[in-house]
TrEMBL record:
Its cofactor is heme. It holds the Pfam family p450. Residues 1-50 are annotated as: Disordered. It comes from the Eukaryota. PANTHER family: CYTOCHROME P450. Keywords: Heme, Iron, Metal-binding, Monooxygenase, Oxidoreductase. Residues 25-46 have a biased composition (Polar residues). Belongs to the cytochrome P450 family. This is Cytochrome P450 10-like. InterPro entries: CYP11_CYP27_families (IPR050479), Cyt_P450 (IPR001128), Cyt_P450_sf (IPR036396). Coiled coil: none annotated. It comes from Aplysia californica (California sea hare).
Length: 211
């Protein structure tokens, strides 16, 4: 497959078909998996303890932190290796962090649909500390619980209406097309784009500016 072909293909298809095998079709539910899919995922009837989640051994105290540091510039490939070694749901222990990684769009969908009205997210500590020092009420990015739900309910109507989102499609398409063309010019002899993080930040900034 040529580099140009890989670039033009949807990211989801690149990830699922070329790097790791698909888990199930997007329309398949967990219940349907249990009824005969060749790759059934966990269901509400057979929950497993946290300790049974596959986990790389890592180093004492450090855990797998060094692996993350050594693969910071190719994290997407690092995650693909993890999927091949441990499956699409695995556990990482890095320094004081002990967390689960989910590498399946379908599993993430199941998670979001079952997290309830008050999902908990780790707060952005620098922002949370800023609001605390300034004695300001927490914004939606650092809030949880009922406070988050109240702000989310107020924001979802004006920002998620299809009629409003469609107003930005043309400008975002232009920015994204320029971004893809720029990636073509930045490829090295091996087809890779060095320092792609910087390019993604520029794309994100321009995308926000044209809204």
């Amino acid at each position: 497959m040529s580099d140009e072909t890989m670039l033009r293909r949807p990211i989801s298809r690149i990830a699922s078909n070329d790097l790791v095998p698909p888990l199930r079709s997007a329309s398949t539910t967990v219940d349907e998996q249990a009824k005969g899919n060749s790759n059934p995922g966990p269901t509400s009837s057979d929950p497993k303890p946290f300790s049974t989640i596959p986990c790389p051994k890592g180093w004492p105290i450090l855990g797998t932190a060094l692996e993350f540091a050594n693969n910071a510039d190719k994290m997407h490939l690092f995650h693909c290796e993890r999927v091949r070694d441990y499956g699409r749901i695995w556990r990482e222990k890095a320094l004081a962090l002990d967390f689960v990684v989910v590498a399946s769009a379908e599993a993430v969908e199941d998670l979001i649909r079952n997290e309830g009205d008050f999902p908990f997210r780790r707060p952005l500590q620098p922002l949370a500390e800023y609001y605390r020092v300034k004695s300001q009420p927490e914004a939606i990015l650092v809030s949880n619980g009922e406070n988050w739900r109240r702000m989310r309910s107020a924001l979802e109507k004006p920002i998620l209406k299809p009629s409003l989102l469609s107003n930005h499609v043309t400008s975002m398409r232009a920015v994204s097309s320029d971004f893809v063309n720029r990636l073509d010019t930045l490829r090295d002899d091996g087809g890779d784009v060095n320092n792609i993080d910087s390019e993604l930040f520029k794309w994100s900034l321009e995308g926000e500016a044209v809204k």
